[in-house]
């Protein structure tokens, strides 16, 4: 995307700021999605990717932007300047996003780009357009432990003025447990991709593994993408994608999104990026209640989540 196109993207969001509101959720095949997405569902479902396209899928606030940056740097051999050509949402379009005009939809944005494209989605497995599987596209899925994911999503819903009002923490927690947030149930989301990972050649990553040993996980992503970069480039990518560096990088920290949409004075888009921060939010009673429910909802799978490292 050219500088003019990037500028027009930012300007479009700025212009639409006045008409932005907290959109209601409408279920699509049982999954609550923001009304703008639900109302355009047929065109999203009909999307046909190029076989060379890469899909990065996550439940919201599970390491999406981090993974997008790693992949972009791998494709550009660790060239930091090349990856500062545009903000993350311009470099890596958001498949299902629809907003009020004149903001381009994810589908319109992709029409301006040549494959291979790095495409982002928060859709659960069953709502991913079938073209991705029919064309055997590579898919990277990143999962984050439920408690930290819940805390991060709560702060995101406070500052993202397009999603439903989160209300107080005490009420948000049961909404997460019941799957009543945008993009639905965390439990169904992480299980859906986990159960299909081998059949569909999905690289299933864990946020906690990425925090514990980022170099190892960058190398896993590199091998999955059939790329080969030097040890020095791997080291550079690990450094460039540290939380501190990404938080300070205007091309990755979503500072391009104006305050009427993302109010970063309420909470920064990149808040802490830690494992175990949930302990600062859950009371002992909430933690016990959550753990009992978690055991019931996850009893049919054995996904090796860790809520501390």
UniProtKB/TrEMBL annotation:
GO molecular function, one term: estrone sulfotransferase activity
A Pfam family per the record: Sulfotransfer_1
Enzyme Commission designation: 2.8.2.-
Location of this chain's protein in the cell: Cytoplasm
Classification via InterPro entries: P-loop_NTPase (IPR027417), Sulfotransferase_dom (IPR000863)
This protein's UniProt keywords: Catecholamine metabolism, Cytoplasm, Transferase
GO cellular component, one term: cytoplasm
Ranges for domain Sulfotransferase: 51-301
Transmembrane portions of the chain: none
Listed GO biological process terms: catecholamine metabolic process; xenobiotic metabolic process
Family affiliation: Belongs to the sulfotransferase 1 family.
Protein name per its UniProtKB record: Sulfotransferase
Organism in which the protein naturally occurs: Cyclopterus lumpus
Gene that encodes it: sult1st6
